[in-house]
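Hi V.,

You were right to ask for the full record rather than a summary. Here it is.
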Amino acid sequence: MEQDFSKVEQAALAALHAIDAEAGLRAWQAAWLGKRSAVALALAGLGQLPAAERPLAGQRANALRLQLEQAHAAHAAALRESGLAASLQAGALDVTLPGRPAARGRLHIATQTLRQICAIWAQMGFQIYRSRDVETEACNFELLNIPPHHPARDMWDTFHTTIVETEACNFELLNIPPHHPARDMWDTFHTTTSGSLLRTHTSPGQIHAMREYAPEPIRVVLPGMCYRYEQITPRSEIQFNQVEGLAVGRGIRFTDLKGTLTDFARRMFGAQTRTRFRASYFPFTEPSAEMDVECFLCGGSGCVVCKQAGWLEILGCGMVHPKVLQNGGYDPAEYTGFAFGMGPERIAMLKYGIKDIRYFWGNDLRFLQQF
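Predicted structure:
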């Protein structure tokens, strides 16, 4: 029996040392340590031996199996080390090669367009004014000449909300009790728990800006995100950027509006850009208009982007309604003003021929890396 085990040991180790690949190791393990190997068969046949020989034969078979398992593990480790060394040798690092440049991030196309628009208006003497995203129903509608149950409210599908943040969560539960001096560290927008909504347009910012600066003349643009509860399609989203513009002063006329917006279009799309104004309706301006620019892709001859019309609509505008001026703190008998609103995503879609607004918020790098 001992002689048989010695022969098995010698044959198994000789076969193991001849292996130079991991596939051979798996085959060796099945042949010498598997269920049908010589060691397994020897252990299975212990019952046929005389009782006096069984303990010694069992010990020898178990010792052989342990020895072969250890030899297998050691040989596998040696193969891995030799393979790693060969791989490193074959693919040795050449330190003289130039490094691989890291991919640089970039501004989102919506942000690029928004910044370009704001930069142009800043060059034209308009101040950037930011207003809040959560508005009262009064600022979003009533003070803009859109009273309750007015049919014009159907122009906006509104997200209504009941609570923005409780005063307890914002202060008391953070160890800032009422009348504590630390509250002076924050200048807080307070709102009621009823009548709050996510602004459907940036026009409520007109009220905030006028009430802050009245009766002084103002020229401001109000960039920000708007929210509307509507179906998402290739041309509509539930959230999008807008840039509102407002100018209030003495003697401002519709011709000032046309000249200002035409100058903006030429700065944005090129010095040869032609514009046209079409009559429209907005509750907070009177008269109201929409402005088109000559298609900058086809030069007015007609293409897929302009739907063969040769013109592209980029914004709505008009003279500020006297009621809105009054709600903002200005006397409409002395002051006039104009307002306009445009969408950066809309302008980017027209400028670059983007056919689906959902691309802006899909975070697909194949789309974003084009800009």
